[in-house]
Write a structure and sequence with these properties.
This protein has one domain. It is built from 7 helices and 7 strands; from the N terminus they run ββααβααβαβββαα. It has helices spanning 26-39, 42-51, 63-68, 82-85, 106-109, 144-147, 152-166; strands at residues 5-11, 14-20, 53-55, 101-103, 117-122, 127-132, 137-143. The strands form 2 sheets. A 5-stranded mixed sheet has the order 2-1-5-6-7. It has a two-stranded parallel ribbon with strand order 3-4. Helix 1 (26-39) crosses helix 7 (152-166). The chain starts with a strand and ends with a helix.
Length: 169
């Protein structure tokens, strides 16, 4: 069974959130998000978040939007629909540096039954917020400043803190 979740940003009061279909638990998606914050300067994170365009399921990419995406594979290998265009971004927050589009998963983020983990880089209050059961149960909030440049040992410690908040050992 997959562990579904969501990740994204809050900037100027607006959520920009993507669905993640599997491996959304702290040791996988949570680790990717923490590494993204640790390795990316705050000004760049803000630029990335501002640039993101939210899509709905019925959106069709324009030629201009296709050109805006910087792909690791040749365009000739990509079927020009959003599912194929955004394939590299699924569960990969680093891909948003090159592909400024995401399906809008705000509704899913609020689903306490099916959305198990949520990771929001809140640029309004400069925190990384980790939620359980949609965005209704805030587990941990980390100041972004405290995550900048941290190493894997500290990341592992943070992930254990998150787990401890949720699971009794």
């Amino acid at each position: 069974m997959s562990t579904r979740g969501a990740y994204g940003f809050k900037i100027n009061g607006e959520y920009k959130v993507a669905f993640n279909g599997s491996d959304s638990y702290p040791e996988c998606l949570g680790e990717h998000v923490i590494k993204f914050v640790a390795k990316t300067p705050l000004a760049e994170i803000r630029k990335i978040a501002k640039k993101i365009t939210l899509l709905n399921d019925h959106s069709v990419p324009t030629e201009e939007q296709i050109k805006q995406c910087n792909f690791s594979k040749p365009i000739s290998e990509i079927n020009e629909n959003w599912d194929n265009l955004l394939e590299e971004t699924y569960g990969n927050i680093f891909a948003l540096k090159n592909i400024p589009f995401m399906f809008d998963a705000q509704d899913f983020m609020g689903d306490g039954l099916f959305c198990e983990w949520v990771y929001i880089i809140n640029l309004d209050n400069k925190t990384l917020n980790v939620y359980r059961h949609g965005n209704s149960d805030l587990i941990k909030s980390f100041p972004l400043k405290s995550l900048g440049g941290i190493n894997i040992v500290k990341i592992t410690k943070l992930l254990k803190e998150i787990r401890k908040e949720v699971y009794v050992e």
